[in-house]
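Supplementary notes for students who missed Thursday's class. We covered one full example, reproduced here. Read the sequence, then the structure, then the short commentary at the end.
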Amino acid sequence: MSRVLGSVRARAAAGATAVVALALIAAGTAVLLVLRANLQDQAGLQAEVAAREVAAQIATGTAYDKLDLPDGEDHPVVVAGDDGRVLAVGEDVRAVDGKPVRGAQQKPGAGSVGPGSSEDDDDDDDRSGLAPGEVDDDVVHRDGTAEVDGKVADYRFAVVEAKDTRGGKATVRAGSALALEQEAVGSVRTAMLIGLPLLCVVVAGVTWLVTRRALRPVEGIRGEMAAITASTDLSRRVPVPSSQDEVGRLARTTNETLAALESSVERQRRFVADASHELRSPIASLRTQLEVGVAHPELLDVPGAVEDTVRLQRLAADLLLLARLDAGEQPADARVELAAMVREETSQRVADRVPVHVGELAGGEVAGSRTQLARVLGNLLDNAQRHAVASVRVAVVREGEWAVLRVEDDGPGVPEGERERIFERFVRLDDARARDDGGAGLGLAIARDVAVRHGGTLGVRTGSVFELRLPVAG
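Structure (token representation):
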């Protein structure tokens, strides 16, 4: 049960049902209030018409015992004098607002009404200013009860004042039954109470089905991801729906993530395989020399063992640096003067096969790690040394907001079709070249990774010119 309630479909259905239910309750309440008000106004209008008809008879001089009063059950009428005595009362009317009306109907001076009749309608003083034979334009509406022929019911009363031809003041109180209003409101309320749960059930069911259909591709994505996780086969892809909605974008983004993950894993596999292969050669050579030295000390090639150890140390350092770069290591936020770094690094390369000539050195600082940038310069100079015939040249120039470091040699250059492949790891264009002469094929790959980490680029501008572009520090 908790799993069902925790599903997106269940939450969506519950939320939609709650919203619809609240909206229907609010709308239903407003409808009931408006309906009740309209029916009460209609009953009040009918009561006012009945009261004014009786008041008009009084104003024209009709005797109180001769008044034509409406049917008591539909429109109970009580006419009271200025002193509160009942002057006339409708047929079968026994009480109003729980106060009995005493005396014979339609006979003046037959009885009196308690509070809620003349006392409730107006004060005893003649504040209306009516002249004999006039009916007051003002009317007062109020709800109350009346007992007619032994039955008590709710009524909407209208109270109107009038003066007869002799100046006697009379208050006419006529009512209109509210039974129809109560019946209509009750019927609407009952219909709403029955229809609201049914409508909520329909909304919940429709929302459940629509959400289920909308989330079906998500379930397919989830199932395929679970299968990929179980099989570790990153070549698989999740199904992409034909729709261009959020689910479709989710599927396409998931496949892009899987592709990037597959590429990363494949790259790591190749890296591990190549690293193992590269490490095997110097380790095997070093072990062979040491074993020969143990058996025949006079045959031990100490310089060769030292050379293999140095190459192994450099390879291990390169692998560790690549591992740190792959892990997302960011360069230090320091300022590096490229021109000063070039002068310092080139001054230490006195034993190079080909001398390094320093050209233009424009000023300009870049942000990053001096150690890593010096490593890039060293790798580029080492690469140029391996291919140069008689000259290697390095320069730093300023191009707008970029500091550009160029390393050029007079060698044959890099073929145009290989200018990107040389930056891949463990790639050597001359496979027949000895590893101790050509290195492990990691120098340029490390240089490009460092350049990218510093917000720059590294590429081959022409066949033998390598160009490192870095943004100038603000």
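Commentary. Residues 246-326 form a domain with the Helix Hairpins fold (CATH 1.10.287). Confidence is low (pLDDT under 50) at residues 1-5, 104-127, 431-438. If anything here is unclear, bring it to office hours.
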